[in-house]
Amino acid sequence: MVKEWESSGYLKVYHYGEMRSLPLHYPFVQDIEQYDEAQLQRQVPTLIIHGRNDEVIPIQSSRNYAKQRPWVKLVEVDSDHSLTNVSTKIWSLTKEFCHL
């Protein structure tokens, strides 16, 4: 699949916000490859809200990321990748995090 993505130049990916598939261009991957995740250590206050039932990105990815960065707050919610059933909670957590 990755080879096909590279040769065609893009991959159709479902965008939950747009509620439709959009092209994700292969240079996105090329750009990501130039960064070493271990070097991404700028202490920017970060809030991650991740659904425990996420079928796209495993919750463990966010757990690992937050564990290595004490300035990251991870909130696990009972939802999937779309987080559509927790929108009120997201606004509440965001407001609290931003001290609004």
Primary descriptors:
single chain; alpha+beta; Rossmann fold; 2 domains; two-stranded antiparallel sheet; two-stranded parallel sheet
CATH architecture descriptor text of the largest domain: 3-Layer(aba) Sandwich
For the residues shown, what is the average pLDDT?
91
Largest sheet: 2 strands, antiparallel
Question: Structural class given helices, strands, pairing?
Answer: alpha+beta
How much beta, percentage-wise? 15-25%
Account of the 3D structure:
The strands form 2 sheets. The chain has a two-stranded antiparallel ribbon. A two-stranded parallel sheet has the order 3-4. The chain starts with a helix and ends with a helix. The protein has helices at residues 2-8, 27-33, 59-67, 87-98; strands at residues 10-15, 20-25, 46-51, 72-77. The mean pLDDT is 91. The protein folds into 2 domains: 1-34, no CATH class; 37-100, Rossmann fold. It has 100 residues and is of the alpha+beta class.
Outline the secondary-structure elements.
Elements: H1 2-8, E1 10-15, E2 20-25, H2 27-33, E3 46-51, H3 59-67, E4 72-77, H4 87-98
Parallel strand pairs: 3-4
Antiparallel strand pairs: 1-2
In short:
This protein is an alpha+beta fold. The protein is built from four helices and four strands.
